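Help needed: design a sequence for this.
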């Protein structure tokens, strides 16, 4: 919440904006109307203070309502009967597995959801071998069930188009902007797909050629290719275009991104099962590494690279399993604590693991423009 910017936009002090945010958060026992009444009695600048208060109140209150609505949706989903497909799993896992199955059926279909259960059966078998009496209440399997479902439903062009073209999304937008039934609402979506997004939906051979072409452009000093698109998604044409892109999900199993994701998911699942057999805590810490897979674009790539680095150089090191578990825990927390993960490399070095490889980045030299006040410019003349 940019309180200072909001205060400047409404011509008031930041304290009025802070007050509005606090009241909307619900941590103060004051009604909004009472607060506005008190501000109105403050004399000079009262009107501007009320504007700043209302602006902050509206933003925070909307966020609070959205959070409450999301919590209710999750609670409702958890209250539903377990999916029959999870009957063979311990009851402690039924709710999480049912949610994961529902998500993946919607994402790619029943066959893909069955692949999720097959992977979870491997995890469960490894945990039962490491903890035969169930002292840990299947915490390892529960955490992997959460992060595995999220990773398997990764975002791509088809997924984004599907989410943006749903009727529930338009209803949410209308609710957020307080549009009535008689109000006209125009919604424009801005896209800028680059080579990475387009190549991810192509077969591996075509994707490789396309990425090589773009890398050559960048090496020659050009910017990466991208296609800016503004789509009026409230129109019939815009909706049909989004649904056409969303239909590409049926071709997803043929794409290069799908092949890469499945290979890396299987490597993580194998590391968790191998680790759990050696020591329950090692498998648990490796399972929690699924938290590193988040976001999209560079953030997602960085998370996957970090996870695979931890698996290969800490999870399979020659140290005792308990020491490797502690190393992975500290490395994971260091990576999550900072956006760039700059605290991770010292932890890797401490446990004898190599630092993460440095990715090559192009350097663009830009000629400095000459100005009359530039002494080098006058010297050249």
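Sure. Designed sequence:
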């Amino acid at each position: 919440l940019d309180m200072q910017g909001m205060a400047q936009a409404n011509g008031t002090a930041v304290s009025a904006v802070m007050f509005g945010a606090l009241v909307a958060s619900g941590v103060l026992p004051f009604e909004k109307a009472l607060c506005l009444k008190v501000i109105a009695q403050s004399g000079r600048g009262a009107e501007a203070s009320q504007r700043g208060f209302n602006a902050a109140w509206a933003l925070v209150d909307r966020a609070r309502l959205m959070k409450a609505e999301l919590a209710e949706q999750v609670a409702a989903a958890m209250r539903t009967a377990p999916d029959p497909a999870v009957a063979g799993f311990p009851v402690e896992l039924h709710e999480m597995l049912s949610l994961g199955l529902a998500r993946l059926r919607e994402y790619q279909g029943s066959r893909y959801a069955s692949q999720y259960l097959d992977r979870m059966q491997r995890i469960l078998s490894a945990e039962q071998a490491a903890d035969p009496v169930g002292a840990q209440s299947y915490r390892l399997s529960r955490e992997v069930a959460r992060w595995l479902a999220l990773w398997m439903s990764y975002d791509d062009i088809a997924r984004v188009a599907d989410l943006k073209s749903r009727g529930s999304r338009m209803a949410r937008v209308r609710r957020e902007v307080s549009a009535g039934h008689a109000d006209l609402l125009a919604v424009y979506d801005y896209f800028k797909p680059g080579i990475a997004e387009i190549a991810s939906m192509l077969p591996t051979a075509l994707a490789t050629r396309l990425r090589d072409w773009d890398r050559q452009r960048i090496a020659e000093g050009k910017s990466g290719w991208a296609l800016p698109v503004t789509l009026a998604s409230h129109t019939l044409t815009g909706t049909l275009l989004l649904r056409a892109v969303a239909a590409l999900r049926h071709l997803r199993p043929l794409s290069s991104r799908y092949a890469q994701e499945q290979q890396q998911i299987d490597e993580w699942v194998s590391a968790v099962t191998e680790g759990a057999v050696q020591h329950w805590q090692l498998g648990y810490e490796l399972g929690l590494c699924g938290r590193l897979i988040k976001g999209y674009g560079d953030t997602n790539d960085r998370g996957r690279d970090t996870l695979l680095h931890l698996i290969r150089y800490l999870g399979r090191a020659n140290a005792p399993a308990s020491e490797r578990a502690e190393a992975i825990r500290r490395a994971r927390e260091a990576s999550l604590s900072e956006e760039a993960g700059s605290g991770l490399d010292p932890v890797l070095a401490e446990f004898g693991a190599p630092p993460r490889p440095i990715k090559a980045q192009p350097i663009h030299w830009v000629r400095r423009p000459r100005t009359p006040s530039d002494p080098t410019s006058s010297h050249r003349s």
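Residues 46-79 form the longest helix (34 residues).
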